[in-house]
Amino acid sequence: MEVEAGEFFGILGPNGAGKTTTLEIIEGLRQADAGQVRLFGSSPWPRNSAVLPRIGVQLQASSFFERLTAREQIRTFASLYGVGPKKADEMLDVVGLSDKADTRAEKLSGGQMQRLSIACALVHDPELVFLDEPTAALDPQARRNLWDLLRAINTQGRTIVLTTHYMDEAEILCDRVAIMDRGKILQSGPPAELVRGLDAATHIAIETGVLPVEEARRMFDGTVEVDDDGVSLTFVTRTPAPVLATLAERNALRGLSVRGATLEDVFLNLTGREYRA
């Protein structure tokens, strides 16, 4: 696995695949059993004080000092890198927490805590940022706001390495992703390229009742899989254009939706569908 400067790189995998372990090895928090890691051309283990100021780390679970406000938290982190309080306060504004500067960390919402955690990882202006499931347990609004923040960070030239269980997040944010399982990279590349390479069928759905199921099946002489679940009449095909044209000729497009393959389909195809605890 190799990440280029300025890239937004995602690591995907089921529970226990080795995502967090991989990050901890790269960050110098854990010694590798085998293999080699190079971070800015140097080994991160044993703890390499030369590279630490150049990276920012947001761990999967973050803890803050009790009874300290958001401002006090980030000033404490900043002081560890010799960064002054003015720059620390500016970082609160970058992540949209200026109005919460005097609020104790334990009083912040989940999304605000995540933003504070990212602010602490960025306060010393690192070149490379590691984010381990930064949007886990956030509501949709908080996730979208955090996406905007991460895009802005990447646009400023920072390299970001992200782990996530959200396939839509990886598709939207990442230039490239690596899908891993049981400690091995199974496939990597741009999300759109991985999806195209799957060669999956297209699902075309219209509202139930627009066409009788048997009539819909006769229309395509058994060449298209047709299913009605009581809500949608779905056509599964690898040649969607003729199906759409036929439905349009019959004025049978009410409730139309078309779904091609997604990164989730690629993920499941590579890692299987069995439940992972």
From TrEMBL:
InterPro entries in the record: AAA+_ATPase, ABC_transporter-like_ATP-bd, ABC_transporter-like_CS, ABC_transporter_ATP-binding, P-loop_NTPase
Membrane topology: Peripheral membrane protein
Subcellular location: Cell membrane
An example Gene Ontology molecular-function term: ATP binding
GO annotation, biological process: response to antibiotic
Gene3D superfamilies per the UniProt record, alphabetical: P-loop containing nucleotide triphosphate hydrolases
Superkingdom classification of source: Bacteria
Gene Ontology CC annotations of this record: plasma membrane
ABC transporter domain span: 1-207
SMART domains referenced in this protein's UniProt entry, alphabetically: AAA (SM00382)
Keyword terms, alphabetized: Antibiotic resistance, ATP-binding, Nucleotide-binding, Transport
Keyword Nucleotide-binding recorded: yes
Primary subcellular site in the record, as a coarse category: membrane
Similarity comment: Belongs to the ABC transporter superfamily.
Protein name as catalogued: ABC transporter ATP-binding protein
